Amino acid sequence: MDSDGHTRLPRYVRGHVGEVVAVRAVWALPDQTLRGTSRPEQVYAVRFTADELWGSGSHSVTLDLWESYVEQQR
Predict the structure, then answer these.
(1) DSSP state, 71?
(2) Which of 16, 62, 60, 17 is nearest to 43 (CA)?
(3) Across-strand partners of 43?
């Protein structure tokens, strides 16, 4: 679950199931930009329920996540 390098994927959402609620633009992946390369990726707005993240709560959290951070569920 922990990355070997820099990532903008918050630890509290790693491994949790969310719902893609919007497709954003294609932006350079900051993780790679810091290493001197630029790899554009699709960005998605992903909503996570508080119950999914912390086991309780009726609110939700929405994050913009790069495609390489998202694992598609079927």
Answers:
(1) -
(2) 62
(3) 66
* Coil/strand/helix, residue 23: strand
Q: What percent of the chain has pLDDT over 90?
A: 59
SS (H, E, C) 2-52: CCCCCCCCCHHHCCCCCEEEEEEEEEECHHHHCCCCCCEEEEEEEEEEHHH
On the 0-12 / 13-18 / 19+ scale of CB atoms within 10 A, 43 is buried
Query: Which pLDDT band holds residue 60 (cuts at 50, 70, 90)?
Result: very high
Instruction: Sketch out the chain's domains with CATH numbers.
Output: 11-69 (2.30.30.50)
Q: Are 16 and 55 in contact (CB under 8 A)?
A: no
Q: Using the structure block, give the residue that is written with the tokens 């922990």.
A: 2
